[in-house]
Amino acid sequence: MPVVRQLITLAIETSCDDTSVAVLETARQDGTSQDQRAAILHFHEKVTADNARFRGVHPIVALDSHNKQLAPLVAEALRNSPSSDQGSPSISIRSPSGWLEKSKPDFISVTRGPGMLSSLNTGLNTAKGLATAWQVPLVGVNHMQAHALTPRLVHALETENHEQPSPEFPFLTLLVSGGHTMLVHSKALTHHAILANTIDIAIGDCIDKMARHILPVGVIEDSGEMMYGRLLEHFAFPNGPSDHRYIAPRTRAEDLSQKPSIWGWALTAPLSRTRSGSRSKDMAFSFAGIGSAIQRICHRIETAMTLDERRDVAREAFRVAFEHLASRVLMALQQLKKAETADTEEMGTLVVSGGVASNRFLRTVLRSFLDIRGFAHIRLMFPPTSLCTDNAAMIAWTGSEMYKAGYETDLSCGALRKWSIDPSAEGGGILGVDGWKMK
Q: Is residue 305 helix, strand or coil?
């Protein structure tokens, strides 16, 4: 019986300031693959642009980093690709020890959007060049769709190829990052209905701004860390989960009530009080108010802030922000349950993805909320920390799922600064943009 190898894709992610390349091998749709694993990640590396002096992403710095890092990462990925099987398409790769015969990728996966156009174009143009040179298809991937599907990649890396990807559709997805905060009903591979979105800033952006106000002088500069949220989490909970000591409120009224601190200040839950009346039941997120409140507390003139008070501010800021996320998850679950649809009966998973998903206190808050408020059966799925932030592995997996479903992208396609995953949104969602073609 002839050996049939699995599908191989080389993937590129350059949507913001991370330059990432991956080589992923996945089981073929017909189940004829020789390896028993559903997915093998042969190579996965990422380099983040040094934006430290700007305290945030600078487009030119990000672009320079992509231009410097992308080609060497692709070269390294090719050297680490699987060796060519006898009789299968191959490419010759130069290495320090001589020429190597490597399996030619079956297709190229690349982030097409959403993101910063200059950054996206660097990766997209490189991917087009590889696809043209090797005469293989191109698959342009939606970055947010990839975040939502990341747990399916994790499951595939751990299971045999005859198992179905998990979680199976439908499931809820909470996408939380520096640029996005949305709650999504993931109904199918290309159908992700947005249930709630931020009306101002993303939660990751809010946490970064809070960190600049809360952390003692010099902490950010001395650390050399660009992930301010990680610094703030470690400052708030230096001993990790043992410092959490958290129990979720049992009622919506408790959610909205202020909890005065021993220092005389209190934070208000977002959207609980507005000039036009209560918006506490709006399916929306808002984080600008928390950031402004933290700035006022940390920079009041009349008193100097002690280290203990700063730590209390950090913990309370995290609690209010994460309870706000959890409240909308609960509202969505209640609405789906009330609708009594077939999807509701199958709904059993909440996927939390994006950079903020690596925060362990967020995991504590969501689990406590679900358990106390009648949804203990909901399974929480968090990707490993390395896959929570932007990465090429998730692009490779999503590209593989789209390719197996019959989708390819025309070489004339352009990068997309905005690209909704919701088919009811302007533009028609994932499949609403131009450039798609069926195999």
A: coil
